[in-house]
Each structure stands twice: as structure tokens, then as C-alpha cells.
Specification:
The complex is a heterodimer of chains A (88) and B (323).
Chain A (H helix, E strand, L loop, with lengths): L1 H14 L1 H4 L5 E2 L2 H27 L7 E2 L5 H6 L2 H6 L4
Parallel strand pairs in A: 1-2
Chain B lengths: L1 H34 L4 H18 L1 H10 L3 H15 L3 H15 L8 H22 L10 H9 L1 E2 L2 E2 L10 H29 L8 H23 L2 H24 L6 H17 L4 H22 L9 H8 L1
Antiparallel strand pairs in B: 1-2
Helix pairs in contact in B: 1-2, 1-6, 2-10, 4-5, 6-7, 6-10, 8-9, 8-10
Classes of the chains: A mainly alpha (88), B mainly alpha (323).
Keywords (chain A): Cell membrane, Membrane
Subcellular location (chain A): Cell membrane
Family (chain A): Belongs to the UPF0161 family.
């Protein structure tokens, strides 16, 4: 499952991302974030993190530097509190 | 697992079928009465109308984006500073630049939302046209069996618009699909090139970014060709129209909100000056220049008023002056 997701994200980054250039208001971009999140946190948590990030990426968000939380950091503190205050 | 996904997918798509088919059928009422209900022209124009409606609905997002990139001029010196400081480290440079955008509330990028919104719409249109041809008795959204049959059998310029390059031997479909693929490649390529040649500072055009752009030249036709042979001609019309709209939108941005320090910004400055000169007014940039000049003049005047300290002179010099 994880490998499948990684493959899909890689295909997206190869084929679809170049079509519209850089649009993401964050660094790393949403697809780079998704790739890293799934690689680091596995299919379920990675997908969850990536989905949250996508909902944060809209024209009313300030954008900015928004890295994938590290495994150690996210284990003891709730991720929803750390991401809710950021971006949107 | 797959069932689970198809249930979620169905729940998302069901309302979309209604929205898309409502717009499509609405346009078809208009164009159908003009060109004949079963005609390909009516259906193709309906698809183009649908595209325009969707892109118009996304204009608020676009306006918001323009507003949030309005102060790029003001933070430009800071961006330069960062480029000087972290120019060797692209990762760090990207991080710091994004931080700066966030802190100043100015972000030149459109966000991922417009693309995310358009994906399911694209998919819904694909399903509507594909299923209309394969299974006209299944009524999705506002499509009746009669409309499904018309939609699935509509022929435009000798090509059945529900056919794909792959599932037909008809030369007309293949030619039309190929032409549309070429059109999509050309519009996207032009959009990107316009962005690079006019709206990018010269220093951004070298290095890894330029490399990536060159890659794009090879990736683009491949992606459009793959999409172009797998999707029905009707969907390709949607895609091409959407690309054309993007190109026009970007032309507007480059003309009216160019990135500072680029050829497009210089061109706009020149136009503004010419316009201001015709009206006998002054542009903000000119006013700023004049203000700076006036300040410098004032400082010079102030300086000349302060008393000059007598300079040490030799007796010979003093005598020379007296005479």
C-alpha cells in the first residue's frame, strides 16, 4: 500500500506537476510534502498528513515553510494542535 | 479496500454529475436550438461553455491570489538579500523565501486549490461523456437517456466526440485528437515560456530551475499525448479550452501585476509613464523619485547653509586673495 502510494505520488510529480509549474504557497510543495509524509509516517498517517496539508493550501493561507513533522516530534504531541495554528 | 474507495468516490461524484450536467444541458438547450440537438457543434460548444463557466467560477480565487502578491515590489530587496545569503543552498533559500512570504503576507503563488477543484470536475465530465456512449440508459445527474444518446453519438468535424484515439479506427477521431494534443502542448508551452521570458528575474533563469524548465519541454508533449489518446475528444476540448483560459489569465497577470525586476515590470513601468505623460499626471514611481530627489536637494541646501570652517592658509595665499 505504502509503495503503491509512493509510486502514485512520484508519477504525479513526474507527469502532472510540471504542467502547471509552481503553484504551492508552501515549502516543501504539497506533493513533495505528501511523498515525504508517506515515506516517513506510512500509508495511513502519511495520507492523513498530506490531506490536511492540501486543505491548508488555498489562496487565503499565508503559506510559508511547513515541513513534515518528524516521527519523534509527532509521537508525543498531538499533530492537530501543531498544524492547526499554522498556515490557514 | 477498493469497495471503500469507490463508495467515497461515488459520494463525491454524485453531486458533481448534477452540477456538470446542469451546466452542460443548459448550454445544450441554447446551442441545440441553434445548430440542432443531435449536432456535434452544439455539444462541443456546450463543453466549451462548461469550461468557461468553471473557470469564471474560479476567478475569485485568482483575484485573491493577485491581491496577495500585490506587495512583491516592497519585499523584493529582502528577497535579493536572501538570494545573496543562501544562493548556494537552494533548500535553505526556498525555506527562507517562503518564511518571508508568510511574514509579509505576500505570496506570489496561486495555491493548490484551483487544480484540486478542477480535477474531479474533469473526471466527472469524462465519466459523463464516456458512460453516455457506453450505457445511455443509465441516467447520471440531469442527463436523460435521450440526451445521453445524443451526447454519445454526437459527431463534430467527422469525429465522434465520445470516441478516444485508442478505441477507434476512425481516422477523423485520430486526426482531431492529435490536433487537440498539439494545441494543448502549444498553449501550455507558450504559457510557460511567456512566464520565463517576461516574468522571471534574469538570475532565476540559470541553474537548476532552468534545467527543470528544459525537462518540461520533453515531459509536456508526452503527458498530453498519453492523455490525448486515452480521453474522449469531448474531454480534450475541455482541456484545451481550459489551457487557453490559463494562458489568457497569465497574460493579464504579466501585463498588470508583473514580478518586480523583470522585463514585464519594466514594460509596465514604461506604459504607466507614457499614460501618465498623456494625462499630465505622474506615476507613483515618478513621485517617489521626485520625493527622493527633493530630499537630497534639501540635504545639500542644508549643508551649504552651515558655516564653513576657515581653512588653514599660508601667508602667501592670504595676500593673494586680498589683492
Amino acid at each position: 500500500m505504502k509503495q503503491l502510494l509512493i509510486g502514485l505520488i512520484r508519477a504525479w510529480r513526474f507527469a502532472i506537476s510540471p504542467l502547471y509549474g509552481q503553484v504551492c504557497r508552501y515549502h516543501p510543495s504539497c506533493s513533495a510534502y505528501a511523498l515525504e509524509a508517506v515515506t516517513e509516517h506510512g500509508a495511513v498517517r502519511g495520507t492523513w498528513l498530506a490531506t490536511r496539508r492540501l486543505t491548508r493550501c488555498h489562496p487565503w493561507a499565508a503559506g510559508g515553510y511547513d515541513p513534515v513533522p518528524t516521527r519523534a516530534g509527532s509521537a508525543d504531541q498531538s499533530p492537530s494542535t501543531s498544524t492547526a495554528t499554522r498556515g490557514a | 479496500m477498493l469497495d471503500f474507495f469507490s463508495t467515497i468516490g461515488g459520494a463525491i461524484m454524485a453531486p458533481l454529475y448534477y452540477v456538470i450536467s446542469a451546466v452542460l444541458v443548459g448550454f445544450h438547450k441554447l446551442f441545440g436550438s441553434l445548430f440542432g440537438e443531435a449536432s456535434g457543434v452544439a455539444w462541443v460548444l456546450s463543453i466549451i461553455g462548461l469550461t468557461l463557466v468553471i473557470r469564471m467560477a474560479l476567478i475569485p480565487l485568482f483575484v485573491k491570489q493577485i491581491k496577495s502578491s500585490r506587495n512583491m515590489q516592497l519585499i523584493q530587496p529582502k528577497v535579493r538579500e536572501l538570494q545573496k545569503k543562501y544562493g548556494h543552498d537552494r533548500e535553505r533559500l526556498a525555506q527562507e523565501t517562503m518564511k518571508l512570504y508568510k511574514d509579509s503576507g505576500t505570496n506570489p503563488f496561486a495555491s493548490c486549490l484551483p487544480i484540486l477543484l478542477q480535477m474531479p470536475i474533469f473526471l466527472a465530465l469524462f465519466r459523463l461523456i464516456d458512460q453516455a456512449a457506453k450505457d445511455p440508459s443509465h441516467e447520471r445527474g440531469l442527463m436523460t437517456e435521450e440526451l445521453n444518446t445524443q451526447f454519445g453519438d454526437a459527431v463534430f468535424l467527422g469525429a465522434k466526440i465520445s470516441d478516444t484515439f485508442l478505441n477507434t479506427d476512425d481516422i477523423g477521431v485520430r486526426v482531431l485528437a492529435a490536433v487537440l494534443v498539439l494545441a494543448m502542448t502549444a498553449t501550455t508551452f507558450l504559457t510557460q515560456r511567456q512566464l520565463m521570458s517576461k516574468n522571471m528575474p534574469a538570475d532565476a533563469l540559470s541553474g537548476p530551475y532552468a534545467q527543470q524548465q528544459k525537462m518540461l519541454l520533453y515531459v509536456l508533449p508526452v503527458v498530453f499525448a498519453v492523455g490525448g489518446i486515452a480521453f474522449p475528444v469531448g474531454v480534450l476540448f475541455y482541456w484545451t479550452t481550459s489551457n487557453l483560459w490559463t494562458m489568457g489569465q497569465q497574460f493579464y497577470v504579466i501585463r498588470n501585476n508583473p514580478a518586480p525586476g523583470t522585463p514585464a515590470a519594466d514594460a509596465k513601468e514604461e506604459r504607466d509613464r507614457a499614460k501618465a505623460a498623456r494625462k499630465g499626471l505622474k506615476t507613483p514611481a515618478q513621485l517617489e523619485e521626485e520625493r527622493l530627489a527633493a530630499e537630497a536637494e534639501e540635504r545639500r541646501a542644508e549643508k551649504s547653509q552651515t558655516r564653513q570652517q576657515p581653512q588653514r592658509q599660508t601667508k602667501a595665499q592670504r595676500n593673494k586673495k586680498k589683492r
